[in-house]
Design goal:
With 244 residues, the protein is of the alpha/beta class. The chain is built from six helices and twelve strands.
Length: 244
């Protein structure tokens, strides 16, 4: 059985033998909801590469004290993968974030595409972004990731164009593209940006703006916006050392 994972900045730089306190929301969840007790083992990670396995030496009402048994630092792997996700309707955005986190995407960028059904404005924008970030945190712990994915603020189309221009490989998914995703080479690629359009598809203006990217298709079937990015990244990562 896998050990439970909790996020804690205290683990940064920690070595075997150190005593760390897990408090705040994570400590409360561990002590009150999961009812972790003295003698049990847990994994603490700072979400920035460091993870530590430790034994609980004290269990309070809303905190745990953990003795570090072993600690390790994981370097960030390449290629660095960013997914620009057009904002879907309902809770499908959170579903997309959850799945993208589980397959090890490095950065997720919500995009206000012209044909996005859902619109983020004012308080709704802040609340929706908060839900995406919470979904990423929960999924990262479930997937036992040493690195949390970055969930960036909502991007405009111009900002997506800039992201594509900066990447070693830019990929735009489109059902009418002639080039299959599987035809792309990742040799020498250090960074990839994958753009996933909305339910209504990409507009002609958006396609015209993404001139620095490869416009590709996944297959004969048309996937939902919440699953297309997951499928595309899985294809790409399966051909890299990250999934070797």
């Amino acid at each position: 059985m896998s050990l439970p994972v909790f996020l804690s900045d205290a683990v940064t730089g920690a070595a075997a033998g150190a005593s760390l306190v897990l408090d705040g929301d994570e400590g409360r969840h561990a002590a009150t909801v999961m009812r972790i007790r003295v003698g049990e083992q847990v994994v603490l990670t700072d979400g920035a590469g460091t993870s530590a396995t430790g034994t609980v030496t004290e269990a309070g009402r809303a905190s745990l004290t953990v003795r570090v048994d072993s600690a390790a630092y994981a370097e960030r792997e390449t290629p660095h993968v960013t997914v620009v996700q057009a904002i879907p309707k309902g809770d499908r955005g959170e579903l997309a974030v959850e799945m993208l986190t589980e397959i090890d995407v490095d950065r997720i960028v919500p995009w206000a595409a012209s044909r996005s059904v859902a619109v983020w404005r004012g308080e709704r924008a802040a609340k929706s972004l908060g839900k995406w970030r919470a979904a990423a945190r929960t999924a990262a712990k479930q997937a036992r990731r040493a690195w949390l994915p970055e969930v960036a603020g909502m991007a405009s189309t111009d900002e997506v164009v800039a992201l594509l221009a900066q990447a070693d490989l830019g990929v735009v998914l489109h059902e009418d593209a002639q080039v299959p995703l599987a035809a792309l080479s990742l040799d020498g690629i250090g960074s990839v940006v994958v753009v996933v359009g909305p339910e209504g598809g990409l507009s002609d203006d958006e396609l015209a703006a993404f001139t620095s990217a490869e416009v590709v298709r996944l297959g004969a079937s048309v996937l939902r916006t919440s699953t297309a990015g997951v499928a595309a990244v899985a294809v790409l990562l399966s051909r890299t050392s990250r999934w070797a």
